[in-house]
Amino acid sequence: MSEHVLIRGGTVVTAEHEVRADVLVSGETIAAVGPDLDAPAGARIIDAGGAYVMPGGIDPHTHMELPFMGTVASEDFFTGTSAAAAGGTTMAIDFVIPAPEEPLMAAYQKWRGWAEKAACDYSFHVAVTWWDQSVHADMETLVREHGVNSFKHFMAYKGAIMCDDEVLVNSFRRAGELGALCTVHAENGELVWTLQQQVFESGITGPEGHPLSRPPEVEGEAANRAIRIAEVLGVPLYLVHTSCIDALEAVTRAKLEGQRVYAEVLAQHLVIDESVYRDPDWDRAAHHVMSPPFRPKHHQDALWAALQSGMIQTTATDHCCFCTPQKRAGVEDFRKIPNGTNGIEDRMAVIWHHGVRTGKLTPSEFVAVTSSNTAKIFNIFPKKGALQAGADADIVVWDPNKHRTISAKTHHQNIDFSIYEGMEVVGNPAYTLSRGRVVYDDGQLNTERGTGRYVDRPPWASFWAAQKLRNDLSKVSPVERVLPTAESEG
Ligand code: URP
Ligand code: ZN
Ligand code: ZN
Ligand code: ZN
Fold first, then answer.
1. Which terminus of the chain is less hemmed in, N or C, by CB atoms within 10 Å?
2. pTM > 0.80: yes or no
Protein backbone atom coordinates (compact mmCIF):
# COMPACT_ATOMS: atom_id res chain seq x y z
CA MET A 1 0.00 0.00 0.00
CA SER A 2 1.48 3.32 -0.96
CA GLU A 3 1.48 5.97 1.71
CA HIS A 4 -0.01 8.63 -0.57
CA VAL A 5 -2.93 8.47 -2.96
CA LEU A 6 -3.79 11.36 -5.24
CA ILE A 7 -7.29 11.34 -6.72
CA ARG A 8 -7.03 13.57 -9.73
CA GLY A 9 -9.53 15.19 -12.04
CA GLY A 10 -12.78 14.55 -10.22
CA THR A 11 -15.63 16.66 -8.92
CA VAL A 12 -15.60 16.69 -5.14
CA VAL A 13 -19.11 16.49 -3.74
CA THR A 14 -19.84 17.26 -0.11
CA ALA A 15 -23.15 17.89 1.61
CA GLU A 16 -22.44 21.62 1.05
CA HIS A 17 -21.18 21.89 -2.52
CA GLU A 18 -19.67 20.48 -5.71
CA VAL A 19 -16.22 21.64 -6.82
CA ARG A 20 -13.60 20.50 -9.32
CA ALA A 21 -10.70 19.46 -7.08
CA ASP A 22 -8.02 16.84 -6.49
CA VAL A 23 -7.87 14.96 -3.21
CA LEU A 24 -4.58 14.00 -1.60
CA VAL A 25 -4.60 11.19 0.90
CA SER A 26 -1.65 10.73 3.29
CA GLY A 27 -1.74 7.52 5.24
CA GLU A 28 -5.19 7.20 6.80
CA THR A 29 -6.38 10.78 6.43
CA ILE A 30 -7.13 13.40 3.81
CA ALA A 31 -4.17 15.78 3.55
CA ALA A 32 -5.53 18.28 1.06
CA VAL A 33 -8.45 19.05 -1.23
CA GLY A 34 -7.83 21.60 -3.97
CA PRO A 35 -7.08 22.28 -7.60
CA ASP A 36 -4.01 20.80 -9.33
CA LEU A 37 -2.38 19.19 -6.30
CA ASP A 38 1.15 17.86 -6.71
CA ALA A 39 1.70 14.16 -6.30
CA PRO A 40 4.28 13.31 -3.61
CA ALA A 41 7.03 10.89 -4.72
CA GLY A 42 5.70 7.34 -4.95
CA ALA A 43 2.05 8.35 -4.68
CA ARG A 44 -0.56 6.16 -6.29
CA ILE A 45 -2.53 8.27 -8.73
CA ILE A 46 -6.19 7.53 -9.35
CA ASP A 47 -7.58 9.24 -12.40
CA ALA A 48 -11.14 10.14 -11.46
CA GLY A 49 -11.78 11.03 -15.08
CA GLY A 50 -14.63 13.41 -14.35
CA ALA A 51 -16.28 11.14 -11.79
CA TYR A 52 -17.59 12.36 -8.44
CA VAL A 53 -15.41 12.09 -5.34
CA MET A 54 -17.52 11.83 -2.21
CA PRO A 55 -17.31 10.86 1.47
CA GLY A 56 -17.77 7.10 1.78
CA GLY A 57 -21.25 6.01 2.74
CA ILE A 58 -22.15 5.45 6.38
CA ASP A 59 -24.85 2.86 7.03
CA PRO A 60 -26.34 3.65 10.44
CA HIS A 61 -28.30 0.39 10.70
CA THR A 62 -26.83 -3.09 10.12
CA HIS A 63 -26.97 -6.49 11.84
CA MET A 64 -23.87 -8.57 11.03
CA GLU A 65 -23.85 -12.10 12.49
CA LEU A 66 -26.86 -11.27 14.65
CA PRO A 67 -28.28 -14.16 16.70
CA PHE A 68 -32.00 -13.74 15.95
CA MET A 69 -35.15 -15.86 15.81
CA GLY A 70 -33.36 -19.14 16.43
CA THR A 71 -30.56 -18.63 13.92
CA VAL A 72 -27.61 -16.33 13.20
CA ALA A 73 -27.47 -13.78 10.37
CA SER A 74 -25.31 -15.24 7.58
CA GLU A 75 -23.30 -12.10 6.91
CA ASP A 76 -20.37 -11.63 9.29
CA PHE A 77 -18.44 -8.46 10.04
CA PHE A 78 -15.77 -9.26 7.41
CA THR A 79 -18.06 -10.28 4.55
CA GLY A 80 -20.54 -7.55 5.38
CA THR A 81 -18.06 -4.68 5.54
CA SER A 82 -16.38 -6.02 2.37
CA ALA A 83 -19.69 -5.99 0.51
CA ALA A 84 -20.24 -2.49 1.90
CA ALA A 85 -16.92 -1.34 0.40
CA ALA A 86 -17.86 -2.79 -2.99
CA GLY A 87 -20.93 -0.56 -2.85
CA GLY A 88 -19.16 2.61 -1.66
CA THR A 89 -20.03 2.34 2.04
CA THR A 90 -17.07 2.70 4.38
CA MET A 91 -18.63 2.57 7.81
CA ALA A 92 -21.48 0.69 9.48
CA ILE A 93 -23.12 1.33 12.81
CA ASP A 94 -24.28 -2.09 13.99
CA PHE A 95 -26.25 -3.06 17.10
CA VAL A 96 -25.30 -4.79 20.32
CA ILE A 97 -28.55 -6.54 21.34
CA PRO A 98 -28.40 -8.07 24.83
CA ALA A 99 -30.88 -10.83 25.59
CA PRO A 100 -33.29 -9.92 28.41
CA GLU A 101 -31.36 -10.09 31.72
CA GLU A 102 -28.03 -10.22 29.90
CA PRO A 103 -25.71 -7.49 31.25
CA LEU A 104 -25.17 -4.73 28.68
CA MET A 105 -21.41 -4.74 29.20
CA ALA A 106 -21.15 -8.49 28.59
CA ALA A 107 -23.13 -8.20 25.36
CA TYR A 108 -21.07 -5.22 24.27
CA GLN A 109 -17.78 -7.09 24.79
CA LYS A 110 -19.14 -10.08 22.87
CA TRP A 111 -20.06 -7.93 19.86
CA ARG A 112 -16.70 -6.11 19.98
CA GLY A 113 -15.02 -9.51 19.71
CA TRP A 114 -17.15 -10.56 16.73
CA ALA A 115 -16.45 -7.28 14.95
CA GLU A 116 -12.66 -7.55 15.10
CA LYS A 117 -12.71 -9.16 11.66
CA ALA A 118 -14.33 -6.08 10.04
CA ALA A 119 -12.67 -4.65 6.94
CA CYS A 120 -14.11 -1.13 7.28
CA ASP A 121 -14.73 1.07 10.29
CA TYR A 122 -17.72 0.40 12.53
CA SER A 123 -19.42 1.41 15.73
CA PHE A 124 -22.28 0.14 17.90
CA HIS A 125 -25.65 1.32 19.09
CA VAL A 126 -26.51 -0.67 22.24
CA ALA A 127 -30.06 -1.98 22.70
CA VAL A 128 -31.80 -1.64 26.04
CA THR A 129 -34.01 -4.72 26.19
CA TRP A 130 -34.74 -4.81 29.94
CA TRP A 131 -34.27 -2.64 33.00
CA ASP A 132 -32.67 -2.68 36.41
CA GLN A 133 -29.97 -0.73 38.28
CA SER A 134 -27.18 -2.59 36.44
CA VAL A 135 -28.56 -1.38 33.10
CA HIS A 136 -28.71 2.16 34.50
CA ALA A 137 -25.04 1.84 35.53
CA ASP A 138 -23.84 0.10 32.36
CA MET A 139 -25.34 2.83 30.17
CA GLU A 140 -23.02 5.30 31.88
CA THR A 141 -19.98 3.04 31.51
CA LEU A 142 -20.74 2.57 27.80
CA VAL A 143 -21.06 6.31 27.22
CA ARG A 144 -18.13 7.44 29.40
CA GLU A 145 -15.63 4.68 28.62
CA HIS A 146 -16.64 2.95 25.40
CA GLY A 147 -17.66 5.56 22.85
CA VAL A 148 -21.35 4.63 22.75
CA ASN A 149 -23.68 7.60 22.25
CA SER A 150 -26.90 5.92 21.15
CA PHE A 151 -29.26 3.36 22.66
CA LYS A 152 -31.79 1.30 20.72
CA HIS A 153 -35.27 0.24 21.81
CA PHE A 154 -37.34 -2.44 20.11
CA MET A 155 -41.03 -1.71 20.62
CA ALA A 156 -41.82 -5.00 18.81
CA TYR A 157 -40.67 -8.65 19.11
CA LYS A 158 -42.78 -9.49 22.16
CA GLY A 159 -41.45 -12.36 24.22
CA ALA A 160 -37.90 -11.63 23.01
CA ILE A 161 -36.27 -8.20 22.92
CA MET A 162 -39.34 -5.91 23.13
CA CYS A 163 -39.38 -3.13 25.70
CA ASP A 164 -42.53 -1.86 27.33
CA ASP A 165 -43.22 1.78 28.24
CA GLU A 166 -41.57 1.38 31.64
CA VAL A 167 -38.26 0.43 30.00
CA LEU A 168 -38.63 3.18 27.40
CA VAL A 169 -39.23 5.84 30.02
CA ASN A 170 -36.37 4.70 32.27
CA SER A 171 -33.93 4.38 29.40
CA PHE A 172 -34.89 7.66 27.67
CA ARG A 173 -34.43 9.51 30.98
CA ARG A 174 -31.07 7.89 31.60
CA ALA A 175 -29.87 8.64 28.08
CA GLY A 176 -30.91 12.25 28.65
CA GLU A 177 -28.62 12.43 31.68
CA LEU A 178 -25.73 11.00 29.66
CA GLY A 179 -26.08 12.97 26.42
CA ALA A 180 -26.87 9.85 24.39
CA LEU A 181 -29.45 9.62 21.60
CA CYS A 182 -32.36 7.21 21.93
CA THR A 183 -33.46 5.29 18.86
CA VAL A 184 -36.55 3.15 18.38
CA HIS A 185 -37.85 0.36 16.21
CA ALA A 186 -41.43 1.62 16.21
CA GLU A 187 -44.07 -1.08 15.98
CA ASN A 188 -46.67 -1.86 18.65
CA GLY A 189 -45.45 -5.32 19.66
CA GLU A 190 -48.62 -6.20 21.53
CA LEU A 191 -50.77 -5.57 18.44
CA VAL A 192 -48.31 -7.44 16.21
CA TRP A 193 -48.53 -10.42 18.57
CA THR A 194 -52.34 -10.40 18.55
CA LEU A 195 -52.59 -9.96 14.78
CA GLN A 196 -50.07 -12.74 14.17
CA GLN A 197 -52.25 -15.22 16.07
CA GLN A 198 -55.42 -13.95 14.33
CA VAL A 199 -53.94 -14.12 10.84
CA PHE A 200 -52.44 -17.57 11.43
CA GLU A 201 -55.64 -18.95 12.91
CA SER A 202 -57.60 -17.61 9.93
CA GLY A 203 -55.64 -20.06 7.79
CA ILE A 204 -53.00 -17.70 6.37
CA THR A 205 -49.72 -19.43 7.15
CA GLY A 206 -47.50 -18.14 4.30
CA PRO A 207 -45.36 -14.96 4.02
CA GLU A 208 -48.42 -12.95 2.93
CA GLY A 209 -49.44 -13.16 6.59
CA HIS A 210 -46.42 -11.08 7.60
CA PRO A 211 -47.62 -7.65 6.35
CA LEU A 212 -51.16 -8.42 7.53
CA SER A 213 -49.84 -8.77 11.06
CA ARG A 214 -47.88 -5.49 10.90
CA PRO A 215 -50.06 -2.86 9.19
CA PRO A 216 -48.96 0.79 9.01
CA GLU A 217 -51.18 1.75 11.98
CA VAL A 218 -49.07 -0.48 14.23
CA GLU A 219 -45.98 1.50 13.24
CA GLY A 220 -47.76 4.86 13.41
CA GLU A 221 -48.96 4.20 16.96
CA ALA A 222 -45.54 3.21 18.24
CA ALA A 223 -43.78 6.06 16.46
CA ASN A 224 -46.18 8.56 17.99
CA ARG A 225 -45.89 6.98 21.43
CA ALA A 226 -42.08 7.06 21.39
CA ILE A 227 -42.10 10.64 20.09
CA ARG A 228 -44.47 11.80 22.82
CA ILE A 229 -42.50 10.01 25.54
CA ALA A 230 -39.36 11.74 24.26
CA GLU A 231 -41.17 15.08 24.18
CA VAL A 232 -42.38 14.78 27.77
CA LEU A 233 -38.90 13.78 28.96
CA GLY A 234 -37.18 16.52 26.93
CA VAL A 235 -34.89 14.24 24.94
CA PRO A 236 -34.22 14.01 21.20
CA LEU A 237 -35.30 10.86 19.37
CA TYR A 238 -34.20 8.93 16.27
CA LEU A 239 -36.64 6.61 14.50
CA VAL A 240 -35.04 3.77 12.58
CA HIS A 241 -36.53 2.28 9.38
CA THR A 242 -39.52 4.66 9.01
CA SER A 243 -41.60 2.84 6.41
CA CYS A 244 -45.06 4.38 6.14
CA ILE A 245 -47.16 7.52 6.03
CA ASP A 246 -48.56 6.81 9.51
CA ALA A 247 -45.12 7.08 11.11
CA LEU A 248 -44.16 10.02 8.89
CA GLU A 249 -47.23 11.90 10.06
CA ALA A 250 -46.10 11.48 13.66
CA VAL A 251 -42.59 12.67 12.77
CA THR A 252 -43.84 15.61 10.74
CA ARG A 253 -46.28 16.73 13.42
CA ALA A 254 -43.55 16.64 16.06
CA LYS A 255 -41.05 18.49 13.89
CA LEU A 256 -43.59 21.17 13.03
CA GLU A 257 -44.08 21.63 16.75
CA GLY A 258 -40.35 22.18 17.12
CA GLN A 259 -39.47 18.81 18.63
CA ARG A 260 -36.03 17.37 17.86
CA VAL A 261 -36.86 14.13 16.05
CA TYR A 262 -34.67 12.40 13.46
CA ALA A 263 -35.89 9.75 11.04
CA GLU A 264 -34.17 7.10 8.95
CA VAL A 265 -35.51 5.35 5.85
CA LEU A 266 -34.22 2.11 4.35
CA ALA A 267 -33.31 2.06 0.66
CA GLN A 268 -35.55 -0.97 0.16
CA HIS A 269 -38.66 0.74 1.55
CA LEU A 270 -38.16 3.47 -1.06
CA VAL A 271 -38.31 1.10 -4.02
CA ILE A 272 -40.00 -2.22 -3.09
CA ASP A 273 -43.72 -2.61 -2.34
CA GLU A 274 -45.83 -5.20 -0.54
CA SER A 275 -46.77 -7.16 -3.67
CA VAL A 276 -43.61 -9.22 -3.05
CA TYR A 277 -45.42 -11.12 -0.29
CA ARG A 278 -47.94 -12.52 -2.79
CA ASP A 279 -45.22 -14.03 -4.97
CA PRO A 280 -46.33 -17.64 -5.71
CA ASP A 281 -42.75 -18.76 -5.04
CA TRP A 282 -42.53 -19.30 -1.26
CA ASP A 283 -38.77 -18.69 -1.03
CA ARG A 284 -38.94 -15.40 -2.89
CA ALA A 285 -41.83 -14.17 -0.76
CA ALA A 286 -40.09 -15.30 2.46
CA HIS A 287 -36.88 -13.55 1.51
CA HIS A 288 -38.77 -10.26 1.77
CA VAL A 289 -39.95 -10.92 5.31
CA MET A 290 -38.53 -8.06 7.34
CA SER A 291 -39.99 -5.64 9.85
CA PRO A 292 -41.51 -3.22 9.23
CA PRO A 293 -42.74 -4.96 6.08
CA PHE A 294 -42.84 -3.59 2.56
CA ARG A 295 -45.84 -1.28 2.12
CA PRO A 296 -48.41 -0.43 -0.55
CA LYS A 297 -46.85 1.76 -3.25
CA HIS A 298 -48.27 5.13 -2.20
CA HIS A 299 -46.14 5.01 0.97
CA GLN A 300 -43.01 5.10 -1.22
CA ASP A 301 -43.94 8.48 -2.69
CA ALA A 302 -44.39 9.87 0.82
CA LEU A 303 -41.03 8.48 1.95
CA TRP A 304 -39.24 10.05 -1.02
CA ALA A 305 -40.96 13.35 -0.38
CA ALA A 306 -39.95 13.20 3.28
CA LEU A 307 -36.35 12.50 2.31
CA GLN A 308 -36.35 15.38 -0.19
CA SER A 309 -37.91 17.82 2.24
CA GLY A 310 -35.65 17.00 5.17
CA MET A 311 -38.31 15.28 7.31
CA ILE A 312 -36.10 12.19 6.97
CA GLN A 313 -32.37 12.77 7.41
CA THR A 314 -30.66 9.41 6.93
CA THR A 315 -30.76 6.30 4.76
CA ALA A 316 -29.80 2.82 5.94
CA THR A 317 -30.22 -0.85 5.04
CA ASP A 318 -31.03 -2.79 8.24
CA HIS A 319 -28.73 -5.32 6.51
CA CYS A 320 -29.68 -8.60 8.20
CA CYS A 321 -29.10 -11.60 5.95
CA PHE A 322 -30.68 -15.05 6.15
CA CYS A 323 -30.11 -17.66 3.45
CA THR A 324 -32.89 -19.79 1.98
CA PRO A 325 -32.50 -22.75 4.39
CA GLN A 326 -32.71 -20.28 7.30
CA LYS A 327 -35.85 -18.62 5.92
CA ARG A 328 -37.41 -22.09 5.51
CA ALA A 329 -37.64 -22.44 9.30
CA GLY A 330 -40.98 -20.73 8.75
CA VAL A 331 -42.22 -22.80 5.84
CA GLU A 332 -45.37 -23.79 7.72
CA ASP A 333 -45.72 -20.65 9.80
CA PHE A 334 -44.81 -17.11 8.67
CA ARG A 335 -44.23 -16.14 12.32
CA LYS A 336 -41.08 -18.30 12.34
CA ILE A 337 -39.45 -16.82 9.23
CA PRO A 338 -36.37 -14.94 10.47
CA ASN A 339 -36.94 -11.25 9.79
CA GLY A 340 -34.36 -9.47 7.69
CA THR A 341 -33.18 -8.51 4.20
CA ASN A 342 -29.88 -7.69 2.49
CA GLY A 343 -28.68 -4.44 0.96
CA ILE A 344 -25.48 -2.92 2.36
CA GLU A 345 -23.79 -3.29 -1.03
CA ASP A 346 -26.65 -1.69 -2.92
CA ARG A 347 -27.91 1.23 -0.82
CA MET A 348 -25.76 3.91 -2.47
CA ALA A 349 -26.47 2.80 -6.05
CA VAL A 350 -30.20 2.30 -5.45
CA ILE A 351 -30.54 5.78 -3.93
CA TRP A 352 -28.38 7.37 -6.62
CA HIS A 353 -30.28 5.67 -9.43
CA HIS A 354 -33.79 6.20 -8.09
CA GLY A 355 -33.09 9.48 -6.29
CA VAL A 356 -30.42 11.51 -8.10
CA ARG A 357 -31.16 10.26 -11.61
CA THR A 358 -34.85 11.10 -11.25
CA GLY A 359 -34.25 14.65 -9.98
CA LYS A 360 -35.41 13.95 -6.44
CA LEU A 361 -31.99 14.57 -4.88
CA THR A 362 -28.97 16.64 -5.87
CA PRO A 363 -25.54 14.98 -5.58
CA SER A 364 -24.93 17.07 -2.43
CA GLU A 365 -28.24 15.95 -0.95
CA PHE A 366 -27.22 12.39 -1.79
CA VAL A 367 -24.03 12.85 0.24
CA ALA A 368 -26.03 14.32 3.10
CA VAL A 369 -28.52 11.43 3.31
CA THR A 370 -26.02 8.63 2.71
CA SER A 371 -23.18 9.90 4.90
CA SER A 372 -22.84 13.39 6.39
CA ASN A 373 -26.17 13.59 8.23
CA THR A 374 -25.51 10.28 9.95
CA ALA A 375 -22.03 11.47 10.95
CA LYS A 376 -23.50 14.65 12.43
CA ILE A 377 -26.39 13.01 14.29
CA PHE A 378 -24.12 10.35 15.77
CA ASN A 379 -21.38 12.89 16.51
CA ILE A 380 -18.47 11.65 14.41
CA PHE A 381 -18.43 14.55 11.93
CA PRO A 382 -16.04 15.67 10.40
CA LYS A 383 -13.81 12.67 11.15
CA LYS A 384 -16.43 10.76 9.13
CA GLY A 385 -18.92 12.01 6.56
CA ALA A 386 -16.67 14.85 5.37
CA LEU A 387 -14.29 15.33 2.49
CA GLN A 388 -11.81 17.84 3.86
CA ALA A 389 -8.25 17.98 5.16
CA GLY A 390 -7.96 16.13 8.45
CA ALA A 391 -10.93 13.81 7.90
CA ASP A 392 -10.48 10.05 7.73
CA ALA A 393 -9.78 9.06 4.13
CA ASP A 394 -13.07 7.15 3.70
CA ILE A 395 -13.80 8.08 0.11
CA VAL A 396 -15.78 6.80 -2.83
CA VAL A 397 -14.96 7.69 -6.41
CA TRP A 398 -18.41 7.51 -7.95
CA ASP A 399 -18.90 6.88 -11.64
CA PRO A 400 -22.34 8.26 -12.50
CA ASN A 401 -22.38 6.36 -15.81
CA LYS A 402 -21.40 2.90 -14.58
CA HIS A 403 -24.17 0.34 -15.11
CA ARG A 404 -24.73 -2.68 -12.91
CA THR A 405 -27.50 -5.24 -12.83
CA ILE A 406 -27.89 -6.31 -9.22
CA SER A 407 -27.88 -10.07 -8.69
CA ALA A 408 -27.14 -12.57 -5.94
CA LYS A 409 -24.95 -14.34 -8.51
CA THR A 410 -22.52 -11.44 -8.64
CA HIS A 411 -22.91 -9.57 -5.36
CA HIS A 412 -20.40 -9.83 -2.50
CA GLN A 413 -22.99 -10.18 0.27
CA ASN A 414 -23.07 -13.56 2.00
CA ILE A 415 -26.66 -14.43 1.11
CA ASP A 416 -28.10 -16.56 -1.70
CA PHE A 417 -30.78 -14.01 -2.61
CA SER A 418 -31.09 -10.33 -3.42
CA ILE A 419 -34.22 -8.28 -2.85
CA TYR A 420 -32.99 -6.16 -5.79
CA GLU A 421 -32.45 -9.13 -8.16
CA GLY A 422 -32.47 -7.93 -11.78
CA MET A 423 -32.62 -4.21 -10.94
CA GLU A 424 -30.35 -2.15 -13.19
CA VAL A 425 -28.69 0.75 -11.44
CA VAL A 426 -26.69 3.47 -13.18
CA GLY A 427 -24.17 5.19 -10.91
CA ASN A 428 -21.76 2.93 -9.03
CA PRO A 429 -18.42 3.10 -7.26
CA ALA A 430 -15.24 2.97 -9.31
CA TYR A 431 -12.95 3.07 -6.25
CA THR A 432 -13.54 2.95 -2.51
CA LEU A 433 -10.95 4.00 0.06
CA SER A 434 -11.22 2.95 3.69
CA ARG A 435 -8.93 5.07 5.87
CA GLY A 436 -6.60 5.49 2.88
CA ARG A 437 -6.57 1.84 1.70
CA VAL A 438 -7.95 1.31 -1.78
CA VAL A 439 -10.34 -1.50 -0.82
CA TYR A 440 -12.40 -1.44 -4.00
CA ASP A 441 -10.16 -0.88 -6.97
CA ASP A 442 -11.84 -0.51 -10.34
CA GLY A 443 -14.01 -3.59 -9.91
CA GLN A 444 -11.57 -5.53 -7.73
CA LEU A 445 -12.42 -6.03 -4.04
CA ASN A 446 -9.25 -5.87 -1.94
CA THR A 447 -10.53 -5.82 1.62
CA GLU A 448 -8.54 -7.41 4.42
CA ARG A 449 -9.85 -9.02 7.57
CA GLY A 450 -9.38 -6.92 10.65
CA THR A 451 -8.35 -3.62 9.05
CA GLY A 452 -11.57 -1.92 10.18
CA ARG A 453 -11.47 0.00 13.45
CA TYR A 454 -13.99 0.67 16.14
CA VAL A 455 -15.08 4.31 16.04
CA ASP A 456 -15.70 6.03 19.38
CA ARG A 457 -18.73 8.31 19.32
CA PRO A 458 -18.65 10.93 22.08
CA PRO A 459 -21.83 11.99 23.90
CA TRP A 460 -23.41 15.48 23.85
CA ALA A 461 -23.63 15.98 20.09
CA SER A 462 -24.13 19.68 19.31
CA PHE A 463 -27.93 19.43 19.21
CA TRP A 464 -27.99 18.68 22.94
CA ALA A 465 -27.18 22.28 23.84
CA ALA A 466 -30.27 23.42 21.96
CA GLN A 467 -32.36 20.68 23.51
CA LYS A 468 -31.25 21.65 27.03
CA LEU A 469 -31.89 25.32 26.40
CA ARG A 470 -35.40 24.50 25.23
CA ASN A 471 -35.93 22.32 28.30
CA ASP A 472 -34.69 25.10 30.61
CA LEU A 473 -36.81 27.78 28.95
CA SER A 474 -39.93 25.67 29.26
CA LYS A 475 -39.41 25.00 32.97
CA VAL A 476 -42.41 26.05 35.02
CA SER A 477 -41.87 27.65 38.43
CA PRO A 478 -44.21 27.06 41.39
CA VAL A 479 -46.74 29.77 42.36
CA GLU A 480 -45.65 31.62 45.54
CA ARG A 481 -48.65 31.64 47.86
CA VAL A 482 -49.58 32.56 51.38
CA LEU A 483 -51.25 29.36 52.45
CA PRO A 484 -54.66 29.65 54.07
CA THR A 485 -54.93 28.54 57.65
CA ALA A 486 -57.93 27.05 59.47
CA GLU A 487 -58.77 30.52 60.90
CA SER A 488 -58.47 32.58 57.66
CA GLU A 489 -61.67 33.76 56.02
CA GLY A 490 -62.87 31.53 53.15
O1 URP B 1 -36.59 -7.45 10.01
C2 URP B 1 -35.66 -6.86 10.53
N3 URP B 1 -35.64 -5.56 10.43
N4 URP B 1 -34.70 -7.55 11.18
C5 URP B 1 -33.66 -7.05 11.95
C6 URP B 1 -34.11 -6.57 13.30
C7 URP B 1 -34.80 -5.24 13.23
O8 URP B 1 -35.99 -5.17 13.51
O9 URP B 1 -34.19 -4.24 12.90
ZN1 ZN C 1 -36.01 -2.99 13.51
ZN1 ZN D 1 -32.60 -3.51 12.45
ZN1 ZN E 1 -27.43 -0.56 -18.82
1. C
2. yes
